[in-house]
Amino acid sequence: MTETAPRPTLEAVAERAGVSRATVSRVVNGGDGVREPLVERVRRAVEELGYVPNQAARSLVTRRHDAIAVVVAEPETRVFADPFFALQLRGISKELTAHDNQLVLLLTEGRDDHARVGRYLAGGHVDGALVFSLHLDDPLPELIQRAGIPTVFGGRPGWSDGSRDVVFVDSDNRGGARDAVRHLVGLGRTRVAHITGALDQTSAVDRLEGFRDVMGDTGPGLVAEGDFTPGGGERAMRELLERCPDVDAVFAANDLMASGALRVLREQGRRVPDDVAVIGFDDMLTVAEQTDPPLTTIRQDIEEMGRLMARLLLGTDGAASSVVLRTTLVRRASA
């Protein structure tokens, strides 16, 4: 059996660099007060020996773990089925990796998981948290506040009364919805319906308000609640057609629901966009370019939202303040 070479120690690095152990420790842990020539000698010795710092010991010295919790307030089945979450996580992961931080993913299936996440965050395992897909009655914000760690939220926090110093990254959901509905009206459509997202989330509420900004208080028959899933879009579209057979346009609060609505319209012999024009929200290319016909939608930069959340938490963008990103209309064949 081949013996494994012993792991290089802090003392070995100190001997190779010709400095004290304390000097090596300060350099490795990012401390100040070491002259640049000595810093270079230590770094060269670290590289030559292949020394890897003991993360647990380093955490005791620096009180940092170089780990960030990413908390998604959704069950595992939803997170791994919806490309929105993959895009946002990719943006977060890229930014954390660029700054040598680990991503710790925490999902919530139910109320017991909220308590578990709260205990984990309060246990000093991570340096901060990125939290998104919160619901209005979610206990996570209070649990996170008790944990006392820096936090950036994805999406406008509807639970905040404005008295807390809350930092978030969001898209202009209301403005984007207005652009979508104005486009449909500009096409000459007069019976414009809306498939909402889950109305316990601020993004869905804001998009509904944007729809109403243009259409006014339309009758309840032209609004059907979905849940941000393709199945939810199908159910809502069937409901709309039963109540309002003469509907000639639909704005769905995300691309997945729009894809479900398109399937129902096709099943029922409605031509898109000739009989019914359809617009989504997100511009997730894996969805919007694959529907039949390709989907006109409102683009929000989901991956950039993730990157910005991480930058704000890490402080790489200066003082942390909330950011609302602009949206744009992307025209394809459905409207």
Uncertain stretches of 5 or more adjacent residues: 56-62
Helix content: 40-55%
Structural class: alpha/beta
Give the overall silhouette.
elongated
How far apart the termini lie comes to 68 Å
Quaternary structure classification: single chain
Our count of helices gives 14
Annotation, overall tally of beta strands: 12
Largest sheet: 6 strands, parallel
**Average pLDDT over all residues:** 87
Strand residues, percent: 15-25%
Q: List the secondary-structure elements in sequence, H or E.
A: HHHHEHHEHEHEEHEHEHEHEHEHEE
**C-alpha Rg, in Å?**
25 Å
For the largest beta sheet, what order do the strands appear in spatially?
2-1-3-4-5-11
Overview features:
335 residues; alpha/beta; 14 helices; 12 strands; elongated
In short:
The protein has helices at about 10-15, 20-30, 35-50, 55-60, 75-80, 85-100, 110-120, 140-145, 175-185, 200-215, 230-245, 255-265, 285-290, 300-315, and strands at about 65-70, 100-105, 130, 150-155, 170, 190-195, 225, 250, 275-280, 295-300, 325, 330. By secondary structure, the protein is α/β, with parallel strands linked by helices. The strands form 2 sheets. The chain has a 6-stranded parallel sheet with strand order 2-1-3-4-5-11, with helices on both faces. A 6-stranded mixed sheet has the order 7-6-8-9-10-12, sandwiched between helices.
Any chance you could write out the topology, listing elements then pairs?
Elements: H1 10-17, H2 21-28, H3 36-49, H4 55-62, E1 67-72, H5 76-79, H6 83-98, E2 102-107, H7 111-122, E3 128-132, H8 140-147, E4 151-154, E5 168-171, H9 173-186, E6 192-196, H10 202-215, E7 223-225, H11 230-243, E8 249-252, H12 255-267, E9 277-282, H13 285-288, E10 296-299, H14 302-314, E11 323-325, E12 328-330
Parallel strand pairs: 1-2, 1-3, 3-4, 4-5, 5-11, 6-7, 6-8, 8-9, 9-10
Antiparallel strand pairs: 10-12
Helix pairs in contact: 1-2, 1-3, 2-3, 6-14, 7-8, 9-10, 11-12
